[in-house]
Amino acid sequence: MDRLKILVVDDESRMRKLVRDFLVKNNFEVLEAEDGEQAVDIFFQKKDIALIVLDVMMPKMDGWQVCREIRAYSKVPIIMLTAKSDERDELQGFELGVDEYISKPFSPKILVARIEAILRRTNQMENNEILSCGGIEVNKAAHQALIDGEEIELSYKEFELLTYFVENRGIALSREKILNNVWNYDYFGDARTIDTHVKKLRSKMGSKGDMIKTIWGVGYKLEE
Amino acid sequence: MDRLKILVVDDESRMRKLVRDFLVKNNFEVLEAEDGEQAVDIFFQKKDIALIVLDVMMPKMDGWQVCREIRAYSKVPIIMLTAKSDERDELQGFELGVDEYISKPFSPKILVARIEAILRRTNQMENNEILSCGGIEVNKAAHQALIDGEEIELSYKEFELLTYFVENRGIALSREKILNNVWNYDYFGDARTIDTHVKKLRSKMGSKGDMIKTIWGVGYKLEE
DNA sequence: ATAAGTATGTCAAATTTGTGAAACCATACT
DNA sequence: AGTATGGTTTCACAAATTTGACATACTTAT
Fold first, then answer.
1. B90 pLDDT band (50/70/90 cuts)?
2. Which residue in B93, B151, B131 sits closest to B222, CA to CA?
3. Alpha helix locations (H) across chain B?
4. Which residue's alpha carbon is at the shortest distance from the C1' of D29?
5. Which of A129, B53, B142, B211 is the most exposed place for a label (fewest CB within 10 A)?
6. How far apart are CA B196 and CA B133, in angstroms?
7. What 8-state DSSP symbol labels residue A84?
8. What's the CA gap between B99 and B11, in Å, rounded?
9. What is the mean pLDDT of chain A?
10. From edge to edge, which strands make up the β-sheet containing A136-139?
11. Measured between alpha carbons, how far is A110 from A60 in angstroms, rounded to an integer?
12. In DSSP terms, which residues pair with A8 in a beta bridge?
């Protein structure tokens, strides 16, 4: 199995090295960012970051801001490193959806333990997750889609698109929204490519293809 | 921007005051109810309550009952205040769709933080709210309109127009106002075009079409 | 009665979507 | 390296839908 990617964001290289060494020893793959902007860039470029370790105090863009930007698109677990445990900060972090706090100075062992606990928790939740909706079943972990119990062969993008539809069943999705979520957020191609993929998806889904409704002037919707 | 309304339900006035003061300080508008009946009344009278803080132990109608009655019609977020964290109660609340638990005694700061977290979550999630008015139901997220529970097919503009009517039910709307809100603000076409759309809407709404009243010399109004 | 406002049916123009083919691109295989 | 393969994107045109204007009929207020 692949090693899980962890993004470590801190402006101090010494701190990054400390954390990285420990995480690598514990069989994680580590990516580093030295400021908030870099962090956001890397996060949206690589789409398979499993967890983020984020320092609060940073130049340019602080940890809270990074958190907000990422939370606008993703539920990836975030661990915040704070200088001291300050109630106000914790409250702000809670609102932003921070999963865990660790105040400096901390023991690397504790950090690894918390990371593993969080990953165990979130993987457990998402692993056995089979999304289903009206005869469509999507198993994200297995990257497999079933229609009425029978597997259909989908390409990568088709699968991602179907997953996005199932996750947002019943909701009208604009092409812009689909592009931002299924494609990379910095994709600047033609939005009509969605039409092509929808067409293929529909045909591969056979009779269930009708479940993807066109909403004229808006986009598409998977019928509930 | 308007302040969000929060309904605080507790039989102890001291507790209500405590919560209210804190919420007002945090820029919420607070409505109070001292028992379950009042709570339900107020909730259905005011139609724009953003969240409910609900005490479990109350005379007349307890928190669970209030929760059930409200959940029958609305998905408004509910935070339950419990005397002690009791596992059985938490399970019951989970089934009833309680969003969050806070056990007394609690820190007002935590309460505010949780409220804001929930509001952010639900507001961002999608405005999955369903506007309804006399047999008309409009689901903005799904881009779907129901008349007496049955879906009617509307074009983009028709849907926007109906939504605008429902959002401003009972209010006389001039053509100019409608143009500015449903059409782009830089639309300089003929205001008579609204008549055409109103006509189509009325016909698609069947018997409920009468609910859109003509106000001679002014514009239109959706009857409450 | 008359003038001003509104309802309704029709229709051409504009917009949006469906579709198939072709171009492009990355990857694995010979 | 060259080639085959399959996925992805673009493009052009056809098909479908929406939309706003207009003409005519109708209603209301004075």
1. low
2. B131
3. 13-25, 36-45, 63-71, 87-96, 108-125, 156-167, 175-182, 193-204
4. B216
5. A129
6. 23
7. S
8. 21
9. 86
10. A130-133, A136-139, A144-147, A150-152
11. 28
12. A32, A53
Pairwise CA distance, residues A165 & B175, whole Å: 38
Residue showing tokens 């609060």: A56
User: Which residue, counting CA atoms, is nearest to the C1' of nucleotide C10?
Assistant: B196
Strand C neighbours with CB under 7 A? A 175, 192, 195-196, 198-199, 202, 214-219; B 192, 195-196, 198-199, 202-203, 214-219
Alpha helices in chain A (DSSP H): 13-25, 36-45, 63-71, 87-96, 108-127, 156-167, 175-182, 193-204
Collapse the DSSP code of B184 into the 3-class scheme (helix H, G, I; strand E, B; otherwise coil) and give the result.
coil
**What average pLDDT does range B120-129 have in this prediction?**
60
* Average confidence score pLDDT of chain B: 85
Q: Could you check: is the Cβ of residue B190 within 7 Å of any atom of nucleic acid strand D?
A: yes
Q: Looking at chain B, which residue has its C-alpha nearest residue A72?
A: B124
Q: How far apart are CA B204 and CA B152, in angstroms?
A: 7
The 10s digit of each residue's pLDDT in A27-74 is: 899 999 999 989 988 887 777 788 999 998 888 888 888 888 888 777
pLDDT (tens digit per residue) in B143-164: 999 999 999 999 999 999 999 9
Structure tokens at A115: 């990371």
Q: Are strands B144-147 and B136-139 parallel, antiparallel or unpaired?
A: antiparallel
- Binding-site residues on chain A for chain B (CB distance < 8 A): 72, 87, 91, 94-95, 97, 170-172, 215-218, 221
Domains in chain B with CATH codes: 5-121 (3.40.50.2300), 130-222 (1.10.10.10)
Q: Checking DSSP bridges between strand A29-33 and strand B173-174, what pairing results, if any?
A: unpaired
Which token pair is B119? 């509001």
Residue with token string 């088709």: A158
> Are the Cβ atoms of A91 and B109 closer than 8 angstroms?
yes
Helix/strand/coil for A186 = coil
Strands A150-152 and B212-215, how do they pair? unpaired
Angle subtended at Cα A131 by Cα B150 and Cα B67, rounded to the nearest 5 degrees: 60
Q: Could you give the maximum distance between any two Cα atoms of chain B, in Å?
A: 64
Task: For B49-88, write each residue's pLDDT tens digit.
Answer: 889 999 988 888 888 889 888 887 788 889 988 776 555 5
User: How far does B190 lie from chain A, in Å, by closest CA?
Assistant: 22
Question: How far is CA B80 from its chain centroid?
Answer: 19
Mean pLDDT of A190-199: 96
**Residue A1 Cα, gap to closest chain B Cα (Å):** 33
pLDDT category of residue A93 using cuts at 50, 70 and 90: low
Nucleotides of D under 7 A from a protein CB: 6-12, 17-23, 28-29
